[in-house]
UniProtKB/TrEMBL annotation:
It comes from Ensete ventricosum. This is Sucrose-phosphate synthase. Residues 493-665 form the Glycosyl transferase family domain. One of its GO terms (biological process) is sucrose biosynthetic process. It comes from the Eukaryota. Residues 781-1001 form the Sucrose phosphatase-like domain. Residues 125-134, 142-153 have a biased composition (Basic and acidic residues). Homodimer or homotetramer. InterPro entries: Glyco_trans_1, Glyco_trans_4-like_N, HAD_sf, SPP-like_dom, SPS, SPS_C, SPS_pln. Belongs to the glycosyltransferase 1 family. Pathway: Glycan biosynthesis; sucrose biosynthesis; sucrose from D-fructose 6-phosphate and UDP-alpha-D-glucose: step 1/2. Its EC number is 2.4.1.14. Residues 118-155 are annotated as: Disordered. GO terms for molecular function: sucrose-phosphate synthase activity.
Length: 1049
């Protein structure tokens, strides 16, 4: 069996490791097919970078056999075992296992083929949708014969002005900037980079960005929002609510001395007692948004007082300083930033760092795991939707490279490079964009803090180690960094040039190919040593599956090529040791290498150049742009071992080339400094704000809570002291026109309802309630958001009346009531009157799926400010004719979905649905609208008989948070009543800081079946499964729950 020795060794290893493997097999003498399949699926999932399984030798060896060897080799081994069959137990087990693994390998090929076919079908469908979308937007280019830009990147800054720290009046801008990085362990000092797959370069990037922005003139304060973790498994510092980052002005007097610095703000989110990976954070995002909203509102008002005092105007009474920009990092924080930007009406910026669609395609191409397993392991569909939501709201997307724009963001429904160019040209020419919006992609390379670089040593050329270390490796100076001795103890000759690789132990970092290239090139082994800094570890068996597999393979390869004395792989290092590691490599005239399969940017390449190290880097991704600027190294194919060894040998052996690369890197490194990054970043943000015409925050949000409440108080309260004004007195004594409730067949339209509400006067009962606690001043709210409809879409009045009677029986006058519905205002008023409930008893009516807010107790009742608040990016009439065509299935007749003009409002387009089985689901319609540049929110309501299309930032959940800001109500003092079923926005009302009561057996007909396709994410990714704030109750407990809610506060 020549050539099968490695396979035989792996099979023997599986037998030896069998009793230790974690699956509970009934018969350890036999490996079942299902058990082996579980091993491969779980190990492959862990190898993708997100696994949390403990390392298992059995998993590793099974994966090696299935992935590395052809089924023909397995069949040969099985044939030999059968031919030499005997009665020994081990031989029987080996025969059985060979057959089962051979069968599993063939099954894997079948799965790969099926996934390839499915992926090809999906790609063809997407291409067809893109083609249809391109035909739809052809109208944008009519009469716009524009020469294509000559440069490869879309130029977005031809008229961009560089950042100025002062405004037009010469005063400092006093900007407040909010950064969000939700997952990972974030702190200012001693960052635990590489601790797990969630704590990588992004953590360092956002911390240093916060410091650098705070040091920029014109920036007053920077907050970096992240999750608070109070767990015994992590350091106590991650549980501290506030951490002030060291300001650069403390060490550099030329930087911003007027601001109050940068802060890490840790907000509780999800389980507080344990650290959870990013894949499990999705259902807790609304809670984080609520806490972030409260924090930003408080800080904005405090900053107003501080700035007023600094400017000499005295403290108090200033206009709140709302964030200049909210910047989300990664998909989860991108969705948080999108929601906050919509609630506060401030610009939003997104940085992806790594993207879900790209990862999904890579995993499917590997063929190891099915789409279903990928989705369950990584919550990949939820992540992709989070990125799409961020694209919907973003003014600007910051990327590191052109490749990220063209090859990664181009995979998303919400971004099309050709459409973005067309819209940009139209804006420059002053031509309307027909309701379409596309985020602007800008390339801004990450910066670096050069304060740790010893300029004097670099000017001296770093010398060599002979003056510091003796020929036996002993240090001749006592002040040398301890990490040096930790690395050099591995080497037989520590004076040889060091090839340095620094990354997480992740399969994507491709360290195994580097080791093979080093081990198989004898000349390279003679000339150089190899240092591998692969995170921190105590015991490989305690690490996650992917990390353990990489490190185990590293040790095996070192042993295979007998690289002892040539390769260093220390177990521990601190973040403060990293500069010393670079310096050690530079002193040995070494080379830094990044051999990753794909590198989104490559920050380590910039760090290495700052310490005078030439580099060898992958040609896939960001290193292409970095080396074009620095000109200090060689690009290689990461799959080509010979190319890697040749490039390393070239730089190590040719000292003239080594010094040329060193000088080039040091000469050009300033282009990646943090001050340069911040100037470019703020210039682009300022340019985007000017071009997009993004509004400032809503006027009502600029009022402090007391003033807002005073502005909103009812006429009977606000005019108490002006009784001498007869005209006002008469206006208050207007007759009541709502005494007779309208019937179901009445013609009361929106105009009639508004007129009636304007002239409405409170009944004595309602007036007494108002005198106790005026609407807009109550600090506790009960929101009735139960969607009670019959099968034909008409209100189920008997069910609604039972809920309203129970809910309002105990709280009248002491709590405020809000009625939230997908119906129009006229329909809501009619339903309330038919239930014998006076609309004036509600503090607010949220109608049209969150598109309109009305205050029945004041004149005029409509909230004009809210209309302006949600207006941004609203395509209005431009999308009206497109929706029926995109929402109907291809074979459906036009009459199945038509415009319902009677239910349309300025911020709500309503469509009547005749056949539920012949219309598309919400996610499919939204996808088609996104591909055409339309940014909308869509809701099926009234038991799937109506489709509401509303502005992007409008929803029932958002309207409640708008009211909480305007009235100064703590979200924890809001209770929301929902049913077990409801409109398609029903699930958005569950999570958050408020308390949610799910009333059982009340709603018989909902619309949720038209929300998502089966292969999309589940409700468990939206609503926390074990939340004390979401409680299911029977109908007879509504009143008691509201009573206890009132007593709690």
């Amino acid at each position: 069996m020549a050539g099968n020795e490695w396979l035989n060794g792996y099979l023997e290893a599986i037998l030896d490791a069998g009793p230790k493997q974690p699956l509970r097999l009934r018969d350890r003498n036999n490996f079942s097919f299902s058990a082996l399949k579980q091993l491969v699926v779980r190990s492959a999932a862990a190898a993708g970078g997100g696994g949390v399984e403990r390392y298992s030798p059995t998993k590793y060896f099974v994966e090696e056999v299935v992935s590395r060897f052809d089924d023909a080799d397995l069949h040969k081994t099985w044939t030999k075992v059968v031919a030499t069959r005997n009665r020994q137990e081990r031989n029987n087990r080996l025969e059985n296992m060979c057959w089962r693994i051979w069968h599993l390998a063939r099954k894997k090929k079948q799965i790969q083929w099926e996934e390839a076919q499915r992926l090809s079908k999906k790609r063809r469908e997407r291409e067809q949708r893109s083609k249809d979308a391109a035909e739809d937007i052809s109208e944008l280019s009519e009469g716009e014969k524009v020469e294509p830009p000559k440069d490869s990147m879309p130029r977005i800054n031809s008229e961009m002005k560089m950042w100025s720290e002062d405004d037009q009046d010469g005063k400092s801008k006093h900007l407040y900037i909010v950064l969000i990085s939700l997952h990972g362990l974030i702190r200012g000092e001693n960052m635990e980079l590489g601790r797990d797959s969630d704590t990588g370069g992004q953590v360092k990037y956002v911390v240093e960005l916060a410091r650098a922005l705070a040091a920029t003139n014109g920036v007053y304060r920077v907050d970096l929002l992240t999750r608070q973790i109070s767990s015994p498994d992590v350091d106590w510092t991650y549980g501290e609510p506030v951490e002030m980052l060291t300001r650069l002005s403390d060490v550099d007097r030329s930087t911003n001395n007027d601001g109050c610095g940068a802060y890490i703000i840790r907000l509780p989110c999800g389980p507080r007692e344990r650290y959870i990976p990013k894949e499990s954070l999705w259902p807790h995002i609304p809670e984080f948004v609520d806490r972030a909203l409260a924090h930003i509102a408080n800080v904005s008002r405090v900053l107003a007082d501080q700035v007023a005092e600094v400017d000499g105007g005295g403290g108090g009474g200033g206009r709140p300083i709302w964030p200049y920009v909210i910047h989300g990092h990664y998909a989860d924080a991108g969705e948080v930033a999108a929601r906050l930007a919509g609630l506060l009406n401030v610009p939003m910026v997104m940085t992806g760092h790594s993207l879900g669609r790209n990862k999904l395609e890579q995993l499917l191409k590997q063929g190891r795991v099915s789409r279903e397993d990928i989705n369950s392991t990584y919550r990949i569909m939820r992540r992709i939707e989070g990125e799409e939501v961020a694209l919907d709201a973003a003014e600007m997307v910051v990327t590191s490279t052109r490749q990220e724009i063209e090859e990664q963001w181009g995979l998303y429904d919400g971004f099309d490079l050709k459409l973005e160019r067309k819209l940009r040209v139209r804006r420059r020419r002053g031509v309307g964009c027909l309701g379409r919006h596309m985020p602007r992609m800008v390339v801004i390379p990450p910066g670096m803090d050069f304060s740790y670089v010893n300029t004097q040593e670099l000017m001296e050329g770093d010398g060599d180690l002979s003056s510091l270390i003796g020929s036996d490796g002993a240090q001749t100076r006592r002040d040398l960094p301890p990490i040096w001795s930790e690395i050099m103890r591995f080497f037989t000759n520590p004076h040889k040039p060091t090839i340095l690789a620094l990354s997480r132990p992740d399969p994507k970092k491709n360290v195994m190919t580097l080791l093979k290239a080093f081990g198989e090139c004898s000349r390279l082994r003679e000339l150089a040593n190899l240092t591998l800094i692969l995170g921190n570890r105590d015991d490989i068996e305690d690490m996650s599956g992917s990390s353990a597999a990489v490190l185990t393979t590293v040790l095996k390869l070192i042993d295979r090529y007998d690289l002892y004395g040539l390769v260093a792989y220390p177990k521990h290092h601190k973040q403060s040791d990293v500069p010393h590691i670079y310096r050690l490599a530079a002193k040995t005239k070494g080379v830094f290498i990044n051999p990753a399969l794909v590198e989104p940017f490559g920050l380590t390449l910039i760090e290495a150049a700052a310490y005078g190290l030439p580099v060898v880097a992958t040609k896939n991704g960001g290193p292409v742009d970095i080396l074009k600027v620095l000109n200090n190294g060689v690009l290689v194919d990461p799959h080509d071992q010979s190319a890697i060894s040749d490039a390393l040998l070239k730089l190590v052996a040719d000292k003239s080339l080594w010094f040329d690369c060193r000088r080039n890197g040091l000469k050009n490194i300033h282009r990646f400094s943090w001050p340069e990054h911040c100037r470019s970043y703020l210039s682009h943000v300022d340019h985007c704000r000017a071009l997009s015409g993004h509004p400032s925050s809503s006027p009502c949000l600029d009022l402090p809570p007391a003033a807002a409440a005073a502005a909103l108080e009812p006429m009977s309260e606000s005019l108490r002291d002006v009784g001498d004004d007869l005209s006002l007195r008469f206006s208050l004594d207007a007759p009541l026109d709502l005494a007779n409730p309208p019937t179901a067949n009445s013609d009361m339209g929106p105009a009639a309802v508004l007129e009636a509400l304007r002239r409405h006067r409170y009944s004595p009962h309602a007036a007494a309630a108002v005198n106790d606690h005026a609407p807009g001043r109550r600090q506790r709210l009960v929101v009735v958001a139960i969607d009670c409809y019959s099968e034909d879409g008409r209100p189920a009045l008997s069910d609604l009346r039972r809920v309203l009677d129970a809910a309002m029986a105990v709280g009248r006058g002491r709590v405020g009531y809000v009625f939230a519905t997908g119906s129009t205002t006229a329909e809501a008023v009619e339903a309330l009157k038919c239930c014998h409930v006076d609309p004036g008893e509600f503090d607010a009516l949220v109608c049209g799926s969150g598109s309109d807010v009305y205050y029945p107790w004041r004149d005029p009742p409509e909230d004009v400010d809210y209309g302006e608040h949600v207006e941004y990016k609203w395509p209005a009439e431009h999308v009206k004719s497109a929706v029926p065509r995109l929402a109907r299935l291809d074979e459906a007749p036009e009459g199945d979905l038509t415009v319902d003009d009677a239910a349309c409002r300025p911020h709500c387009l309503a469509y009547s649905v005749k056949a539920v089985d012949r219309v598309r689901k919400i996610d499919a319609i939204r996808q088609r609208l996104r591909m055409r540049g339309f940014r909308c929110n869509l809701v099926y309501t009234r038991a799937s008989t109506r489709l509401n299309v509303v502005p992007l930032f409008a929803s029932r959940a958002s309207a409640l948070r708008y009211l909480s800001i305007r009235w100064g109500v703590d979200l924890s003092k809001i209770m929301v009543l929902v049913g077990e079923k409801g409109d398609t926005d029903h699930e958005q009302l569950f999570p958050g800081m408020h308390r949610t009561l799910v009333v059982k057996d009340l709603v018989a007909h909902g619309s949720e079946k038209l929300l998502r396709d089966e292969d999309n994410y589940e409700i468990e990714d939206v609503v926390p499964t074990h939340s004390s704030d979401v409680v299911s109750i029977p109908q007879d407990r509504i009143a008691s729950e509201i009573t206890s809610f009132m007593e709690k506060f």
